[in-house]
Inverse folding.
């Protein structure tokens, strides 16, 4: 048998292995997210029938750009829920970081890179503060982040005197309104955060510790995992994600607004839970959260296209979240039995 024949056989076997792994990955993905994918596809089909505008390329890009903020927040929120925590301050941190960066540029004449860095640093420090207080005092994350939510929102109002801060600096506005080829930059950011958080959760020691802490905190402690370090890391990540999302959103709106981000924490929680993250902790994936964010975004977009009242939109969204939590609790009881 010639060397060329051996090489051809080797390449053929390698290709078969790659195809087998790819097939297993696709089948595993479909098996894990089959139910939610069916729901998502069904909703898209229904909306495309009800409105011819829904499946146009411009509307699809618009939906992806709209969900980018929620998706970035939801990726971080997934980490918090997996460790049996929650962060109610993400919307307020988003507003404070965005308005601060915009204000530093417009009111103080600080260059865009420095202003953005300061905004990111502030949001990250607030997340770090949340984590340190939760880890060192044992106070519930719900209470701690509720307090920082109020303080961050109040600080945004104080800094701007309750008024929007308009930015005409092109380099700042480009952050939220620029394009990479035909793709809006917010979609690129969302994809980058998706890849980063997926690797962090699935391929690193920190990610394994996150699952361990959420699955059984006592067992994690006895196995030598630093619980406090994990908690601090998770909430610091959330602070950075919130600050980044806030800067991008303010750049998209050409202004820093202290009122922006109200209720964003609910959408982030909804996307995470809809994606299969268990409120009991220990279970959750970034891939599932991405699908959850898509469902929330498509739902909002579809209801707007159909001219459904914003009041009814809130009712529908609440019902969807409640249903998702109920299904999660039923699945959890079945697993225990």
């Amino acid at each position: 048998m010639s060397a060329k024949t051996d090489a051809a056989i080797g390449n053929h076997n390698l290709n078969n292995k790659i195809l087998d792994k790819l097939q297993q990955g696709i089948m595993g993905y479909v098996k894990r997210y089959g139910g939610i994918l069916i729901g998502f596809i069904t909703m898209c089909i229904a909306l495309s029938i009800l409105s011819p505008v829904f499946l146009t390329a411009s509307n699809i890009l618009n939906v992806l750009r709209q969900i980018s903020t929620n998706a970035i927040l939801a990726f971080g929120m997934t980490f918090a829920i997996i460790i049996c925590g929650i962060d109610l301050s993400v919307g307020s941190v988003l507003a404070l970081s965005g308005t601060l960066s915009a204000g530093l540029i417009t009111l103080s004449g600080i260059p865009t890179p420095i202003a953005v860095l300061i905004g990111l640093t502030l949001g990250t420090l607030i997340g770090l503060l949340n984590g340190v207080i939760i880890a060192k005092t044992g106070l519930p994350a719900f209470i701690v982040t509720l307090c920082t939510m109020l303080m961050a929102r109040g600080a945004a109002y104080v800094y701007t005197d309750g008024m929007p801060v308009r930015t005409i600096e092109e380099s700042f506005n480009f952050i939220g309104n620029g394009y990479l080829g035909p793709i809006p930059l917010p979609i690129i950011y969302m994809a980058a955060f998706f890849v980063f958080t997926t690797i962090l959760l699935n391929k690193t020691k920190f990610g394994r510790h996150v699952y361990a802490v959420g699955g059984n905190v006592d067992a994690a402690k006895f196995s030598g995992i630093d619980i406090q370090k994990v908690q601090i890391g998770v909430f610091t990540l959330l602070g950075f994600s919130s600050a980044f999302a806030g800067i991008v959103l303010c750049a998209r709106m050409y202004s820093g607004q202290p009122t922006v981000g109200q209720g964003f924490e609910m959408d982030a929680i909804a996307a995470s839970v809809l994606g299969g993250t268990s409120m009991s902790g220990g279970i959750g994936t970034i891939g599932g959260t991405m699908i959850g964010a898509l469902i929330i975004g498509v739902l909002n977009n579809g209801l707007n296209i159909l001219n459904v009242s914003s009041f009814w939109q809130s009712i529908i969204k609440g019902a969807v979240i409640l249903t998702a939590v109920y299904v999660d609790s039923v699945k959890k009881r079945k697993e225990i039995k």
User: Anything to note?
Assistant: The chain has one domain: 46-332. The CA atoms of residues 214 and 292 lie 20 Å apart.
